[in-house]
Amino acid sequence: MKSTAEVKIIGERYSDNYTCGLTMLGSGSMDGFKLEKETDEVAKYRREDGLVLEVTNRKSSLSEATEVITVVSNEGKEPLTMEMLTSVLLKGIKADKIHRFSSFWSAEGRHKVDTIKELDMEHSWSDHGYRVLKFGNLGSMPVRQFFPFVAVEDSETSTFTAVQLYAPSSWQIEVCVKSGDVVKIAGGLADRDFGHWTKKLMPGESYEAPKALVACGNSLLDVCDKLVKAQNPDISPVDEDMGIVFNEYCATWGNPTIDNLKKLADKIEGKGIKYLVMDSGWYGDCGNWWDWRGDWRINTKRFPNGLKELTDYIKSKGMIPGIWYELENTSQEAPSFYETEHLVKKDGVPLTVGNVHFLDMEDPWVIEHLDKYVIDNLKDNGFGYIKIDYNDTMGMGCDGPEGMGENLRKKVLATQEFFKRMKREIPELVIENCSSGGHRLEPSFMELSSMASFSDAHECLSLPIIAANVQRVIKPSQSQIWAVMRARDSDERIWYSICATFLGRMGLSGDVYDLSDHQWQLLDQGMAFYNKVSDIIKDGKTTVLEADTDSYNEPTGSQLVIRELGDKALVVYHRFADSVSLSEYGKNLGIDMERFKIIEKYGQADKDFSAMAILAEL
What we know:
This protein is α+β, with helices and mostly antiparallel strands. It has 3 domains: 7-230, Beta-galactosidase, Chain A, domain 5 (Distorted Sandwich), CATH 2.70.98; 237-453, TIM Barrel (Alpha-Beta Barrel), CATH 3.20.20; 558-617, no CATH class. The chain contains 12 helices and 34 strands. Strands 2, 3, 4, 5, 7, 8, 10, 11, 15 and 16 form a 10-stranded antiparallel sheet that branches. Helix 9 (463-469) packs parallel to helix 10 (491-501) and helix 10 packs parallel to helix 11 (517-539). The radius of gyration is 25 Å and the shape is globular. The two termini are 34 Å apart.
């Protein structure tokens, strides 16, 4: 299925059928476009006034997905101002269901499916009047309400068509129905109506819309696998083996010191952990870490000899040292909070959200400032890992030369350029993409990172549910799952937490120095099992992802995830309240669990809120 494209120019007519304010599709801007050139991959359309649309549909080299690139050019004599441009436009898809993934803080990736009838989107009796489902996100946290993804299903033939957007800032997706049992899918930048976006196109200028991916298949998991495998992240060569991460946040809670980090390094030495990451609180004064973000001067009360003492010590224990930053934002205790000239503005004043100002990442002063306090710090102290957090959003947009949505987009693209700048300066740097957990889990940020925080879900019961859900939208090999260890943890709780990490990257935290020898034995066994199944996590395909709970806070029933690679399979089973055995749950799903020949097992799922994982031969 090939994508086409649409553009809407200010001053030209909007579509009728009661759509003005709902969608800009079908406008007068598309009148007069004629096909000028077409090859297997590229279609070029031109208007008489010189406005050109070029759409490339190219098969991904990494999966059975199609990459779509849309470029608009003004080859005329007069400037034109756009207020809508699609990245992808698919027409005439027979469908009766719409699949989306919602996302809120510590609740990422919930699967939401609606029928066309439930959404009141059946075509009218006379095929007059459009039905429009329009959803998306405004701001610099692109995965705050929904993931930039949609799939439509024809349940009669079990066929799925799915779209995923590269969307680091505001975006939208539209599903439209006018006649018959077919839908139209459009997606891209949030338009003027939805995202306050306009862009002036001068004669001779071109503009490339954000990339989109399209996949077709016979199940939701099938199309998700194709979309995810088409993502092409810049993985550090150091991180190809999916090494285990220990982040100290849930041990110090924003109060790291040279002494408590040495204590942690001593305890986890020789355990096969690759990275020891120091989280927030190493900078500024000794107050609340939240209030000192943006003051990247080393806290000499906590680290009297500087940070190299710490990094040297971590390296002496055989691990790579990591450090946390929130480099785009600045709080009221940081000097940069008051650098008004270099802050993002809205309505002529610094944009303030809570206690945060946003540094203008297009400003050379800001880049020079971050070169000094971020890149030089990484180099001078020998950090090989950086966790980049981002804990609030700029909302609808900001001041600048274009529409507010376009100004916002350029600020976020400048952030992504700084990611690339860090990698140019330190080629083996491992970058962790974090935004209050999972608010930047979209392809363009994931392609700039080795891994990402899957969520801020640390010690809650929803841990395995979220971990499974985000498999559908990012590579499991990039999805760092928190497993927080406490001395009070029962065997069942340790299995429950550790088994969740087999749904992605293993990330550990907590008071590991308080664990008993028996608890350490369970943890050691879990790490050994993770290393044995990491190839399946990395290169396999999820064939089963079933959970029968409707609550993240009070989960009931069970969850089963099966990921296969060649003749091997990884089976991860979590039990919640009122659950049943794995064999019974498999039977209820119509899955013969006897076909999995057990090679090795970790954990024991013999009661509610327990879990186990199986490495099996098919």
